[in-house]
Amino acid sequence: MKKATTEFFAKNVARYVVVTSALVWTTACTTLQGGSSKAASERSVSETVLTQVSRKEALVSRHDRSYWLDMRQSKKLMPKLAGALATGEGEASVQLAKAYLAKNPGDVPAMTLLAQALAMTRNYDLADYYAMLALKKEPGNAAALNIRGLAMMLGSNRTVLDYHKAQNYFRQALDAEPSHVAAGLNGGHLALELGNPEAASALFQQVVQRCGDCTPGLMGWGVALSRTGKHGEAASAFEKVLAKSQNNPRALYNLALVYKNGYNDGKRAEGYLHTLLDSSRTKDVALREKAQTVLRMIKGEAAREERTMIADDDDGTSKIPAAGDTKSSGDERDAELLMTGAEMEDK
């Protein structure tokens, strides 16, 4: 029985957890504080916050992508490393962090950034090692605590106990830094996967309060609320997303599910689904197929296997891949990202 339970959770947790626009939330924000940086350009980096950036554009950022591209050209290692991380260059970030640590052994910010870079390349076990080293010197390092949580969730040969350890690390990260939100998003999605939407709702609500109604927080909160039966509040969360991001595909899809499943209002649900399918913003082929399936369900035309598929994935999100799985999901902005910690702006 124990083995079967472990296999069940491994199958269902080690999949994509996606918030909005098929984005994978992986690592945490980090403020580059202290350390052995001496140059003025390196000290200026210590005043910034690395935030979520995809392969092609800044999605949630205190600075736009051009800022980080300029930083990437710096002759100083730490700014160069920050720029590489923020522009999604995982392998380059790993090499730059190692080069900096070779010159500055034991530097906590550099070890934290190396842990993030390794997580970005999905080397979670080694990322965990460097996160532990950083925490030995700086026990309240929120970014390192979040990396430990990710390693517990996505590393090799994980068990149900490890998933609960991950939840504890995410909680510690949130408590350690008032502006930190990455661990709240990670912990919220893990709670959903473990079948605890009430806990997920509380975590996403905390994220929303910290990030000022940011889209990732609202999307997660809306899904958690819908799973607890609070359909009105869930609809409100998704509508807030649409107010800031017109025709956001996943907000439209989830609103359709709220009205179909929560209020049995097929006509209202059809309206949201048609808007999704007619919008040029909907690039995700899988989401389009799900929307079409839900339309057929409303009309009583869906096959049994289609109804089962929708029931198993009722909020339209993809899942976290097992460690080492390099296949992409949904639209091409599903890159491994850096998570925001302070000011979140929807682009």
TrEMBL record:
Q: Which UniProt keywords apply?
A: Repeat, TPR repeat
**Record GO cellular component, one term:** extracellular exosome
Task: State the superkingdom.
Answer: Bacteria
Q: Map out region (Disordered) in residue numbers.
A: 307-347
Cite the Pfam families for this sequence: TPR_16, TPR_19
Q: What is this protein called?
A: Uncharacterized protein
List the source organism.
Planctomyces bekefii
